[in-house]
Amino acid sequence: MTVAEHIGIVGCSAEGAALCYRTICVEGARLLGGHAHPEVSMHTHSLGDYVRCLDRDDWPGVGELMLASARKLAAIGAEFLICPDNTIHQALPFIAARSPLPWLHIAEVVAAHTVERGFHRLGLVGTRWLVDSEVYPEKLTAHGLTFVRPTTTEREELNRIIMDELVRGIFRPEAVAFHQQVIGRMKDQGCDAVILGCTELPLIVNDSNSPLPTLDSTRLLARAALRRAVSAPA
């Protein structure tokens, strides 16, 4: 029997966290056989607590929420942490040194996968906080990759769709069409793939309806967690 590490999920928004959890369980069974998957625990504060911090650009406050989740997960036996929320990774530097457990960084996972697939210039879509930040640029640049961000107008509409619709489980054709429009412009600017930098985006955008190949940050993080958990020494 394979011994796997206990994965701790620091959740933020429900739809993205649920997709990440489901991916670990479903693909874990394919990897380990039968109905098997690594032990998984999740803790999430109210999304409203995070949004209040985001609205006032209180990144240390976001970090403290993440740290509180990390400590609770460590207390029940988790051995490493993932956060299926791209945006709040901006707060990770504030608390990484105090974290009781190591983290897999979602942007590092995506950047490494991008190199493996041979892409070079990436579009980046997500919340306005995410696309305004250095969460992805820092990791992409370190891997020799270039990127294109949405325009200011596009960022506002992308953010509205994510925060008013997707995190609430509302999926509209108009939201798909807008993302296709933005990604199409990025293709015209020379991008050869697009990062779905919001963990809800794979619920409406994928390789079948995107003008560019998609880098699904949610599932890529889940698969990286699986690989780490299963490769742990017995």
What is the CATH domain class of the largest domain?
Answer: Alpha Beta
Predict the CATH topology of the largest domain. Answer: Rossmann fold
Give the rounded overall mean pLDDT: 95
Tell me the structural class. alpha/beta
Query: How are the strands of the largest sheet arranged?
Result: 5-4-6-7
Q: Which architecture of the largest domain would the CATH scheme give at its second level?
A: 3-Layer(aba) Sandwich
- The proportion of residues forming helix, as a percent range, comes to 40-55%
Distance between the termini: 10 Å
The major pleated sheet works out as: 4 strands, parallel
User: Nearest-angstrom radius of gyration?
Assistant: 17 Å
Strand content: 5-15%
- Low-pLDDT runs of 5+ residues are none
- Element order: H for helix, E for strand: EHEHHEHHEHHEHHEEH
How many domain modules?
A: 2
The global form is globular
Q: How many beta strands in the DSSP annotation? A: 7
Query: Helix segment count?
Result: 10
Describe this structure in words.
- α2 runs antiparallel to α3 and α5 crosses α10.
- This protein has a 4-stranded parallel beta sheet with strand order 5-4-6-7, with helices on both faces.
- By secondary structure, it is α/β, with parallel strands linked by helices.
- It contains 10 helices and 7 strands.
- The model has no long low-confidence stretch (mean pLDDT 95).
- The chain has 2 domains: 110 residues, Rossmann fold, CATH 3.40.50; 111 residues, Rossmann fold (3-Layer(aba) Sandwich), CATH 3.40.50.1860.
- The longest helix has 19 residues.
